[in-house]
Design goal:
The two termini are 40 Å apart. Helix 2 packs across helix 3. Strand 3 and strand 4 form a beta hairpin. The chain has a two-stranded antiparallel sheet. It has a two-stranded antiparallel ribbon with strand order 3-4. The chain is α+β, with helices and mostly antiparallel strands. It is flat, with a radius of gyration of 23 Å. Among the domains are: 30 residues; 34 residues, no CATH class. It comes from Exidia glandulosa HHB12029. This is C2H2-type domain-containing protein.
Length: 166
């Protein structure tokens, strides 16, 4: 029977976890569904000022860019995902270059020799894009799926489309 480590019953909340407890907690964090992990962190940040300061130090920074008449030193989420290239980037750093494609991926039908959509199904599927990236080309530059972007510019933060529930 596996050994269960109870991380909720600590006689001294300020005492650091021993190695076994720390490993168990790290494992639990790694396998925890993202939505549950996010809600747990938010709950801790709202109730514990030490946790709030620690997460603020890791995740919030100061933007050096002014946007839409915002104050020059506005706090921002430090780690963001670019809507153009899909990379994670530090929004507090200046002069980071985004390399992306501004076209669409289209099937290169010549690469699907002997492919009959009536028999084999459609060519443009997520599985085919994953398994045969060389069979798809960008409309902006005629390069294959995994080619480096043909345009450069600033990162554009991806907008969070989830509804906030309080």
């Amino acid at each position: 029977m596996p050994r269960v480590v109870d991380l909720t019953q600590s006689s001294d909340d300020a005492a650091p976890a021993d190695n076994a407890q720390l490993r168990a907690l790290e494992d639990a964090i790694r396998v925890c569904p993202t939505d549950i992990l996010v809600e747990s962190v938010i709950r801790l940040v709202r109730t514990d000022h030490t946790v709030q300061r620690a997460f603020s130090k890791e995740l919030v920074g100061v933007s050096k860019k002014r946007k839409n008449n915002a104050p020059a030193a506005a706090p921002v989420a430090k780690w963001q995902t670019c809507d153009q290239c899909g990379e994670h980037y530090d929004a507090t750093e200046e002069d980071q270059e985004c390399c992306y494609h501004d076209g669409e991926l289209e099937v290169d039908e010549e690469c699907f020799e002997d492919h009959d959509e009536d028999c084999h199904g459609p060519m443009d599927t997520p599985a085919n894009r994953r398994d045969w990236p060389e069979n798809f080309k960008w409309t902006c530059c005629d390069e294959t799926t995994n080619s480096e972007g043909c345009r450069t510019g600033e990162h554009v933060p991806k907008q969070d489309k989830r509804r906030r529930v309080r």
